């Protein structure tokens, strides 16, 4: 981690170093008193140019995704900005503030564990992935080529402040450093599952009262969270099971992680307050066990990071249902408290109904009608929750 932070700080002063070189290259024609102002100005311009190249990259990916999936709703600001906040982008224009440089991702000491996704995908699916992966690279290369052609035709001098050349270099750098995009373009497969589930079931000890998540297990949860962060850190949710009036209830919290914040720490800060409020409202721990589940998310399905799309998911809330039980050699009906919440990794593309495969988006519309419960989510995982309620 220390090595990562040192690299991050080093790369974050690159615009200022380049600005310094440019200023001293022009110092003969500038008054000494103007040097600090010029340094700040050129640093801002260089940082703006870099962000513009990242914007071009995101725009290319977004248009490619919309074309590959034939889904114009994918063209939105969140996807174009690649899930980065406007606030972070504006702050990255401030001199010496951290900027995103792709090579940092490949210099991280974090032990990534590649898990191949669908190594034998159908050719159509591989071509779909290749198109999506190439969009950002092609847009960056196209901008660089257009600007380079103009510069050669107009014989622009590099001694003039090189905005055009800086744009060319920034776009070429983003294209060449997008190693995961290049690999996906060549192989037609994605290389990481960018989500993670973890959870626990444990016996409750006498000194665990009255915590819904005792300190001895909280430290275990946070360790599992730290291991899971490499899977995705854009958003996350956690829940534990308690009881109110002897009925089990879910106590949960979801958050959108702030840029450069640690998801494990941020989620636990918010979740701890949620658990405390639940206890104040009369929720008690289960009598014999402690159970909880967490999910960290990377927005892989074209949906922006939002609490609505973040796991856990439910379709119908807690309700009383007549259920069929088998006990003492007899089947009986009993009214029980029923409530489902799920976390899920992977793809849920369709369900076979009435002798045909129904895609998950159509399935969602159908579930809203047969379950008489609206659901505004766009992703595939919530449909699993709906199917569990139905079945």
List keywords for this structure.
disordered N terminus, about 400 residues, five-stranded antiparallel beta sheet, globular
Question: In summary, what is this structure?
Answer:
The chain is of the alpha+beta class.
Q: Your description of this structure?
A:
The chain has 391 residues and is α+β, with helices and mostly antiparallel strands. The protein is 47% helix and 17% strand. The protein contains 13 helices and nine strands. It has helices at 2-12, 14-25, 35-69, 77-80, 86-91, 102-107, 123-154, 163-177, 179-187, 215-228, 263-280, 360-370, 381-390; strands at residues 195-203, 235-244, 247-256, 284-285, 289-297, 319-327, 330-338, 350-353, 356-359. Strands 1, 2, 3, 4 and 5 form a five-stranded antiparallel sheet that branches. Strands 6-7 form a two-stranded antiparallel ribbon. Helix 3 (35-69) runs antiparallel to helix 7 (123-154), helix 3 crosses helix 8 and helix 7 (123-154) crosses helix 9 (179-187). The two termini are 47 Å apart.
Low-confidence stretches: 1-5, 103-120
Give the overall shape, derived from the CA principal axes: globular
Rg value: 26 Å
- Estimate the helix proportion, in percent: 40-55%
What portion of residues belong to β-strands?
15-25%
Specify the structural class.
alpha+beta
> Number of DSSP helices?
13
């Amino acid at each position: 981690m220390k090595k990562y932070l040192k690299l991050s700080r080093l790369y974050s002063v690159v615009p200022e170093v380049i600005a310094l070189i440019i200023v001293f290259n022009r110092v003969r024609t500038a008054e000494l008193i103007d040097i600090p102002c010029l340094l700040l100005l050129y640093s801002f311009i260089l940082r703006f140019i870099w962000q513009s190249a990242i914007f071009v990259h995101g725009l290319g990916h977004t248009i490619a995704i919309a074309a590959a999936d034939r889904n114009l709703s994918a063209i939105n600001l969140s996807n174009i900005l690649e899930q980065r906040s406007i606030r972070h982008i504006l702050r990255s224009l401030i001199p010496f503030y951290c900027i995103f440089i792709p090579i940092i991702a490949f210099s991280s000491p974090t032990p990534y564990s590649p898990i191949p996704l669908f190594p034998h995908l159908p050719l159509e699916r591989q071509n779909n992935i290749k198109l999506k992966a190439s969009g950002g690279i092609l847009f960056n290369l196209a901008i660089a080529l257009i600007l380079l052609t103009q510069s050669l035709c107009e014989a622009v001098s590099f001694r003039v402040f090189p905005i055009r050349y800086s744009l060319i270099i920034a776009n070429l750098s983003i294209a060449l450093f997008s190693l995961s995009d290049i690999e996906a373009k060549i192989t037609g497969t994605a290389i990481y599952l960018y989500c993670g589930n973890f959870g626990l079931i444990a016996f409750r000890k006498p000194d665990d009262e009255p915590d819904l998540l005792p300190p001895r297990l909280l430290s275990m949860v946070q360790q599992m969270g730290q291991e899971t962060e490499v899977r995705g850190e854009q958003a996350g949710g956690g829940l534990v099971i308690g009881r109110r009036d002897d009925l089990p209830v879910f106590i949960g919290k979801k958050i959108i992680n702030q840029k450069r914040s640690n998801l494990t720490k941020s989620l636990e800060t918010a979740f701890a307050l949620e658990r405390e409020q639940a206890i104040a409202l009369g929720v008690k721990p289960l009598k014999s066990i402690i159970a909880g589940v967490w999910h960290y998310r990377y927005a892989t399905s074209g949906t922006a990071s939002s609490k609505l799309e973040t796991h856990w998911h439910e379709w119908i809330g807690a309700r009383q249902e007549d259920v069929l039980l088998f006990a003492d050699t007899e089947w009986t009906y009993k009214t029980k408290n029923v409530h489902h919440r799920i976390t899920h990794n992977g793809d849920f593309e369709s369900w076979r109904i009435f002798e045909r495969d129904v895609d998950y988006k159509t399935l969602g519309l159908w579930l809203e009608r047969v379950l008489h419960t609206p659901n505004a989510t766009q992703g595939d995982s919530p449909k699993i929750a709906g199917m569990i309620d139905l079945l």
